[in-house]
């Protein structure tokens, strides 16, 4: 019965160039046996007998290609005839999305699940990851799976078989998943035409499968001229990587050195496959290097791959750079390609797993448009690997909210912050209202560089998370995802201090394990995990109002509020104005955002104030020395913003000898090098204390703050500081540093220091 059902589903999928899902619900061992039967039945249908099959499971020993659920990203950029996802023991929503994306048109996705009626109540290893201390797995709910089961039972193209525990005789087909569409009804697609004035060889366009691809390749023609950038965006399966590969091959045939990069070499496999095919079709002289990552073309052109960090250095002075899956790369690496001597292509997936990192759209797009390159955008909408109306794509988009979007601009534009309604969005309300869930989650996706389907499961099921929003005219205009942290018992705190990781307690974990404060996890906190404002009303006070409401609601329940994020000058200002103070700046950059992560606290009770006080002092002292070491390369505006948001008092206690050096360098012939420690102490005082209270006579302008950070705190050479900050000479830079210290002498100087100043000023 199951074999026959699978054959029918596969035939219909092939006839329509769509995909089908087969759910085998029940006992795990029976499901695995049935999956083997399905693959064997499908193989018999194939004339050659070969069916590419992958299994994603916590078990091992299959005769097919195997992947673990947490490593299912190995399927990205690949296509398979059959993918089997074992949902027993560890059901990972991210793995489901990756498996869906790997199934080719005409293929099958097989899901092995517990009995569907029971599945929402089953707890597995993924649920264990949601059981954040002090909560247990019994506190985790099954709303995500409840919603998923509903989509399986209602979407077209999904067959469901209930497996009997005692053998196939009792199996029951709940749905056959057939849509009734025949081959003659399948969507047809006319082949694209070759542009009459194309710059690339005709074969480049003849290899395109859609008009969208032709438009993308035409845009890539501009890369032959330095100073141009092309941004290609598409959902998965639209052929953007193929278009990039064809263009890379054509550029290499014209003699260009084309450097390709992507998060991993496998992500760029399609680019190299299409480039090599084109070059071979035009010449017999092509040679491919190791694993197809270095292709030589006649005339001196080539297509080569390098990992992102190496590629950002532009070794070998390439003519063109192609960045595939750009959204998954750190912004700081992407910025390395903004070079007017290059032609650059940024290809990125939206509403999919390569595009789960949103840094490209959120942070990099503005920098790209403000940069030296002329930018051209191309969007690919026509699917290539399966039909446009593929029911499995529609199902996955709904089940995992891959296409979640905020409310349309027109619905929220003009909303007044003072009339918006503050409300909780409990998981049951979100589950019952698909539009509300889509708008809230869509805001989080649109505004954050890393929001993924696992976050949807956390939103609906994790006991430590809650959601608050501002709603205007029934539309979500601002939303925050909050996590309860801390309040941990002494034994858990001890284990954390000794190095054991405690899930879901990010701020207490950093303060305890990294900053060595065993008592840090005792106070109770609320951390803002995500906060997002609709872009149509951004910068009109909605974010600040939402935080104020959260502070008011939870102020009597917790000891402090916290946040951790990739630090930028604007975000540091936002959180400082909301009453948060810096206690930590990471020594390394976040892989996704490309920024150094800041942790900030806002106290609500005496224990919270004590926690902030001791960590603010520790941060102040740590930065005094760390800025010339681990933080030597941090953006000076980030350093300044982080220090300005530090609440620690800054005592200034210089010796008379040190004051002589400072006053001499500020008002007379003295030199900075005679007492760098004294200058460092005053710089910390100015950036933390003086800039916070804006005391008269101590305010520094932006350039002076950067000068104090780069030279005094980070210890950069005079020449590089002068060049970076735009001083006409090193001498001018030195004089500017002395000038910057004049108001600091007036503000912090002792009686001795002020008398010393009179020797030079007469005042």
**CATH architectural grouping of the largest domain:** 3-Layer(aba) Sandwich
- How many strand elements? 22
Q: Average pLDDT across residues?
A: 90
Global Rg: 30 Å
3D shape: globular
- Named CATH topology of the largest domain: Aminopeptidase
Q: Helix share of residues?
A: 40-55%
The amount of beta strand, in percent, is 15-25%
What number of structural domains do the residues give? 4
Question: CATH first level of the largest domain: which class?
Answer: Alpha Beta
Give the N-terminus to C-terminus distance in angstroms.
101 Å
> What spatial order of strands do you see in the largest sheet?
10-11-12-9-13-14-8-15
The biggest beta sheet reads: 8 strands, mixed
**Which structural class should the secondary elements be placed in?**
alpha/beta
Query: What low-confidence regions span 5 or more consecutive residues with pLDDT below 50?
Result: 353-357, 691-697
Describe this structure in words.
By secondary structure, the protein is an alpha/beta fold. The protein has 4 domains: 2-179, Rossmann fold (3-Layer(aba) Sandwich); 202-380, Rossmann fold, CATH 3.40.50.300; 409-624, Gcn5-related N-acetyltransferase (GNAT) (Aminopeptidase), CATH 3.40.630.30; 656-761, no CATH class. The chain contains 29 helices and 22 strands. The chain has an 8-stranded mixed beta sheet with strand order 10-11-12-9-13-14-8-15, with helices on both faces. β19 (524-533), α20 (542-554) and β20 form a beta-alpha-beta unit. 52% of the residues are buried.
